[in-house]
Structure to design on (223 residues):
């Protein structure tokens, strides 16, 4: 395990370079040329506290939202950080050694066991849903809500002018979307949405299929 002395501190310039290189290599997956700012992190996490319980972060990148969650009182060991980039996942493990970092595609969430029967209280997503297919979005949301407690919430930001999940998909999944804020201070400006289950709706795919302890899918790596 990395000691405190070895943990790399957040360096905005270094993170900017890392993010820009990642965007150059895969612009559709990264979708932005720079990391999200603290103003957006504040809006994304303002409804989350230590009382929320475990939190899953999708597309954790360089850890901007992760630091905001910890500042809100969420214990580091109650964070599951999902990141598909090898470089970003390695950086997250170095910066947040007590968190559970998974290098995997978020569409595979349904195959991973996280936090047992307790379930997560929130999912914070930095994924570029607007650049994904409807099938990918469905898999991500089904997987995320399969890990959320009945009253849990999924938080997503978007650079677009409207909700990043279409009304037909929301209806299909039994979800309600609410815009809870936004910020012009981010580059580019962003809006934040909260997704919750509609009353009396249970997703058919909420059952966890494969615990990571005994049989993780080949696409996932626990750090």
């Amino acid at each position: 395990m990395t000691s405190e002395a070895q943990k790399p501190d957040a360096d905005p310039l270094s993170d900017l370079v890392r993010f820009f290189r990642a965007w150059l290599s895969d612009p559709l997956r990264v979708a932005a040329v720079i990391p999200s700012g603290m103003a957006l992190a504040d809006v994304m996490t303002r409804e989350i506290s230590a009382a929320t319980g475990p939190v899953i972060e999708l597309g954790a990148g360089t850890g901007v939202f992760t630091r905001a969650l910890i500042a809100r009182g969420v214990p580091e060991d109650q964070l599951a950080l999902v990141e598909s980039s090898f470089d970003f996942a390695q950086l997250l493990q170095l910066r947040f050694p007590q968190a559970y970092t998974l290098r995997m595609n978020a569409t595979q969430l349904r195959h991973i066991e996280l936090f047992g029967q307790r379930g997560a209280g929130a999912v914070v997503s930095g994924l570029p849903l607007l650049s994904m297919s409807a099938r990918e979005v469905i898999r991500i949301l089904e997987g995320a809500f399969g890990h959320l407690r009945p009253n849990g919430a999924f938080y997503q930001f978007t650079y677009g002018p409207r909700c990043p999940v279409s009304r037909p998909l929301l209806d299909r999944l039994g979800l309600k979307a609410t815009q809870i804020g936004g910020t012009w201070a981010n580059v580019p400006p962003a809006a934040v949405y909260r997704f919750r289950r509609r009353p009396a709706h249970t997703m058919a795919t909420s059952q966890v299929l494969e615990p990571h302890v005994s049989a993780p899918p080949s696409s996932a790596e626990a750090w």
